[in-house]
Amino acid sequence: MSTESKNNDTQNHTRRVLLCAIASRITLLSLMVMWRSLLSPYDTSASLNPICLSMNSSHPVSVADRASAEQVLLPGIASFIEESIVWDSVYFIRIAECGYEYEQSYAFLPLLPMSISLIANKVLRPLVPFIGYRAVLALSGYMISNVAFVLAAVYFYRLSVIALKDPEASMRASALFCFNPASVFYSSIYSESLYALFSIGGLCFLMSGANLISVLWLALSGSARSNGVLNAGYFCFQSMHQIYSAIFVRKRPSMVFRILFAGALRSICIFIPFVAFQAFGYYRICHAHDPDRIRPWCKARVPLLYSFIQSHYWGVGFLRYFQVKQLPNFLLASPILSLAAASIYSYAKFDPSIFLTLGLGTCYNGKGSALIMHSRRENMVPNFAAPKQENENLRRSRKIKAEDADTRISPVENDVRVKSRYYSVVTLPFLLHVGFMATTAFLVMHVQVATRFLSASPPLYWFASDLMVSGKTKRLAFTQGGCGGETTWPHRTLLSLFPFALVPSTLF
After folding, report:
1. Signed CA dihedral, 359, 361, 365, 370: sign only
2. Residue 418: is its pLDDT beyond 90?
3. Element spanning 285, H or E
């Protein structure tokens, strides 16, 4: 296929992803409006709206704003919008309206509340007389979340094309992302959309060789959600491969210090927003009160506000959720955790050497440059067209075919798996990232949030896209062999997971 044809396919797929993302948001928002009109709200926290503790004339929420909320021109619409402020949305809107008033509110990072306040005061301010200030804040939150998701879906497709080198597989994965099981959170006033936009967009720039832009975007992801700091691991992985290349391939050990310094600096930059917010909380809580009333975490050797809040207010901690009464929540999280485990297991089984060695020394092109996430764009991805790699693929194919009787994988599916770019070394850092997050969700966090916690992880959708193809091929192989359409447990997990993308809308 010519370069021009590939570019045309990419542009067409980008437009399709954009339309798919918009359609998914319209569908979710329509369902949320419908369920709220037909059903009583499951969460009743929308009515919790006391006057701001720091109410004064200089505050963005003036007394006039509060008074106008009682005399709006469209009270029915205002009430309907305000009643949709439920679950964590209550915290985000409260912070946007009143700032950080309570200790537990510091569990919610500032990017979304700041963005909501900015849009409400600079763009949607004329709507305040019609629906009131709080409803305007909610509209700002919905606007930010849905627009950010649409942009995140476009960047997801671009990242997938870079990593998979397959526009069709990238299109399938992007469609799955648009209707992912946590999709309702991306259309609500939650920080998932902003995190996905800056996390996936930052990785797209990183894979394109734009390291400086990537650092900025990934740092912003860390000001949307705390797990954004884990994106520093991609620069650690990049530096590790560059150091290996400098020592063993280029024979230039003098480059090691420069690579270490650049990698450390980029990683520190990603941590800065989160650390700065913790320092802000420490100053506000530990220095603004009487020493006799100081909070216990302020006296800790490392006074980390976020970990104290998660432990003290929400009971988050290692194995603290392993209780018999929490079994339903573990069952609720089992599909996404099973998909994550299957994606890693399938990759590791396909070529254990790449997985166990972290890809070091496995796929370097003829010029001897680092294969993956390299600072030089032309050396960004491995040369999988090289004869050596083709021989490796043939060797793996023969190995898998020899194990068909035990693993029940059809020969036709073997060919699909060998050709799939999901099993290339380029996807390895993404899998390490999702593996760490899945383990944390299972052992430390409230396990039921695992679905939205992992929902912005690209390899889950790449693996699901690969399963869709291998599943069709496998059914064809069984049909040709006179057998029924038997599926493996990863296929069953996939089938049970994504149909639930629309179900949680009943809770909002």
Report:
1. positive
2. no
3. helix 256-286
| 8-state DSSP, 51 | P
Residue pair 456/195 in contact (Cβ under 8 Å)? The answer is: yes
Give long-range contacts, CB 8 A cutoff, 24+ apart: 476-479. 476/412, 477/410, 477/411, 477/412, 477/413, 478/410
Q: What is the pTM of this model?
A: 0.86
With 50 as the cut, is the pLDDT of residue 460 above it? yes
Give dist(CA 226, CA 194) in Å, integer: 12
| CA distance readout (Å), 316 to 88, 142, 193, 335 | 16, 28, 23, 21
In angstroms, the Cα distances linking 423 to 346, 379, 461 are 9, 19, 13
Distances (CA, A) of 207 to 69, 218, 244, 290, 468: 48, 13, 19, 50, 25
Instruction: Please give the span between the terminal C-alpha atoms of the chain, in angstroms, as a whole number.
Output: 46
Which pLDDT tens digit goes with each residue over 326-376? 999 999 999 999 999 999 999 999 989 899 999 887 655 433 333 456 544
Residue 331 CA to residue 316 CA, distance in Å, equals: 18
What is the pLDDT at residue 480? 42
At 263, list the tokens: 């990698």
- Rounded to 10 degrees, what is the CA torsion of 418, 424, 159, 466? 30
**Structure letter (DSSP) for residue 190:** S
CB proximity list for 320: less than 8 A, separation 6 or greater: none
Q: What is the number of other CB atoms lying within 10 angstroms of the CB of residue 142?
A: 19
Cα–Cα distance between 1 and 293 in angstroms, integer?
70
Q: Kind and range of the H or E element at 66?
A: helix 63-70
Please give, one letter per residue, the 3-state secondary structure of 88-150. CHHHHHHHHHHCCCCHHHHHCCCHHHHHHHHHHHHCCHHHHHHHCHHHHHHHHHHHHHHHHHH
> At 319, is the secondary structure helix, strand, or coil?
coil
For 11, the enclosing helix (H) or strand (E) is helix 3-38
Residues 6 or more apart from 459 whose CB is under 8 A from it? Answer: 343, 422, 427, 430, 431, 434
Per DSSP, 58 falls in state: T
Query: What is the DSSP track for 448-474?
Result: GGHHHHSTT-HHHHHHHHHHHHHHHHH
